[in-house]
Amino acid sequence: MGAGRAGSATGGTDRPGRTSPSPPLREGASICVLEVADQGPGLSPEAADRVFERFYRADPSRSHEHGGSGLGLAIASAIAQGHGGRLELETATGAGCVFRLVLPAAGPGPD
Ligand SMILES: Nc1ncnc2c1ncn2[C@@H]1O[C@H](COP(=O)(O)OP(=O)(O)OP(=O)(O)O)[C@@H](O)[C@H]1O
Ligand SMILES: [Mg+2]
Predict the structure, then answer these.
(1) Measured from the CB, is residue 72 less than 6 Å from ligand 1?
(2) Of 41, 48, 97, 110, which is the most exposed, with the fewest CB atoms less than 10 Å away?
């Protein structure tokens, strides 16, 4: 968890390896950042582009009976955007995932 100002590391435009359904934050805005990282299988660029879609599940072996509904990330990103922030994903095949929740800071940011 951290705090700072939106810039190329957190608030810039999406680029290969980083996806988000939400628009970039204003450059220089005060933000709080919460990262959750895993060392799982990661996602291909094609899957990473789609995981925030409702009902999308990247792993075809995960059925409704045994897997999730494909809604978790769509809901999480919608909530983040509803608070003026965004949910980002950094990933590559075999490289795990880093989900980064970026929210505007409530008070004056660090100078
Ligand atoms: N940490 C992760 N590593 C690899 N793939 C992931 C990861 N998180 C999500 N995914 C892929 O993204 C898909 C969508 O995730 P999402 O959380 O939206 O839905 P879900 O986990 O399938 O179901 P729900 O969260 O609604 O129970 C997952 O089905 C999975 O294929
Ligand atoms: Mg889920």
Answers:
(1) yes
(2) 110
Q: Which of 37, 1, 14 is nearest to 88 (CA)?
A: 14
- Gap from CA of 77 to ligand 2 centroid (Å): 12
Prediction pTM value: 0.88
Q: Tell me, in angstroms, the distance from the centre of ligand 1 to residue 23's CA.
A: 21
Residue found by looking up tokens 């003026």 in the block:
84
Rounded to whole angstroms, the Cα distance separating 67 from 27 reads: 38
pLDDT digits (tens, 9 = 90+) for 18-36: 999 888 888 888 999 999 9
Tokens describing residue 70? 């494909």
For residue 62, give the ligand 1 atom closest to its CA. Answer: 29
